[in-house]
């Protein structure tokens, strides 16, 4: 399939032996998040994401899909953040992940379920 005019290939991560150094270098550790590809066609922009961007896997091997409206809440999460799962009565989701340290919560559904109820 030919690429559309103006196509810019996504920047793929590459492994390096160590982070770059120097006064103009800034590094941010990415604990969580997702990548998107934006494609512009005239006035229309489409965003594509990886299918597992919103999935959280817990130590008990359960997997939960975060409700997209709650994604900003997850920005402070660390790999060491501990959660408990609680059933909730919500129009969109069946459960919540609750941060045991801060008490903040995000709405989730089982990863294999659909977000449409």
Q: Any overview of this molecule?
A:
There is one protein chain. It contains no helices and seven strands. It has 117 residues and is mainly beta. It has a domain at 55-110. The chain starts with 35 loop residues before the first strand and ends in a 7-residue tail after the last strand.
- Total strands: the figure is 7
* SSE order, one letter for each helix or strand: EEEEEEE
**Please, what is the average pLDDT?**
75
Radius of gyration: 18 Å
The secondary-structure class comes to: mainly beta
Percent in helix: under 10%
Q: What spatial form do the alpha-carbon principal axes imply?
A: extended
- Which residue ranges are poorly predicted, with pLDDT under 50 across at least 5 consecutive positions? none
Portion in beta strands? 25-35%
Count every helix, treating DSSP H or I runs of 4 or more residues as helices. 0
Strand order of the largest sheet: 3-4-7-6-5
Largest sheet: 5 strands, antiparallel
- What is the CA–CA distance across the termini? 37 Å
